[in-house]
Structure formats: C-alpha cells, structure tokens
Sequence to fold (176 residues):
Amino acid sequence: MRADRRARGPGPGGRAAAGELRAARGGAAGGRLSAGRLFFAVVPPEQARRDLDAALAPLRDAPGAPRWSRPGRWHLTLLFLGQVPHPVVPDLVAAAGPAVADAPAMTLRLAGGGRFGSARRPQVAWAGVDGDVGPLSELAVRLTAGARGLGLPVEDRPFRPHLTLGRWRPGRPTEG
Fold:
C-alpha cells in the first residue's frame, strides 16, 4: 500500500492504486467536509482491503469474535478531531494543506495484528502497519500541530498506526 498526497492510478508494472489521504466526516473515510466528527485518514487501496478481508474470513464467525467493520470503512486514522465547529472547517483544511504537501510518497504494508484491551475484555481488533511509518508519523504530528494551532482539542497520546478491523461490545468478555 502506498500513501500519497492524492489518489494515484496504477503505478509501474500495473501495481495496485495508491492509498488516499482524506479528511473525513463521520464514520466513513471520504465525503465532503462539514461540521461533525472529523478525522484525517489514509485509505488503503481496494486490493489491499480485499486481500485482508479474505484473510479474515475464517475468523468472522469464530466464538468471541468482534463485530467486524466493513472493509470499505477501513482506514488508518492520522488524527481524530471529533466534533469540529462548522466555521473552523475551512481553516482546518487550509492548515492541513501544507502538512500533506510536505509528506513524501510512502510505501506501507499491513503487517501483524492484535487487540487493544485485555484478553478478558478486548476492545479493538487491529491490523498493524509496516514500511515508511516514520514519515507517516511525522505527517500525523504536522496535522496535529495544525489542529492545535486553530485551538482544536487533540488527544495527547502517541500515534500508533493501525487499521481498526472490529470492536468488541463493551462489558462482554471474549469466548476464544
């Protein structure tokens, strides 16, 4: 998977299309910008999502499995902002422009996986990311700085690149 500043067509040798960087509203990565729950994300190429979906197929009905997200919703969140007042959105987009423009093309791979939360009370099933994670993390830091510069509250925790695949219902122990 390649993360770039824009969607790209097939690369040399007809390789899969690149991932896209989007500012997204609500739960879906993509769409027009407006007030609401906003986040910046890298969307993996469709082929990478299809391959991962096929690899997860044997786990979908396993006892204690999470509620799996649809592959079309899978994305790597770079910055989650939550509710953003409508008048701030244009300034947020403007602040993100230079942060994204400074990002080099990146090659990323889905690698490994796990869960957030304890074995008894898991919360999130995830796939890890490998490759050019340093530049990806730097992009997340620049987006965070831009949002802070506008006075938006952002979480103060380290960036851990991952693809959320599913969630367990709160308070329900896993069976597996």
The beta strands are 2-3, 20-25, 36-43, 67-68, 76-84, 106-117, 122-131, 162-167.
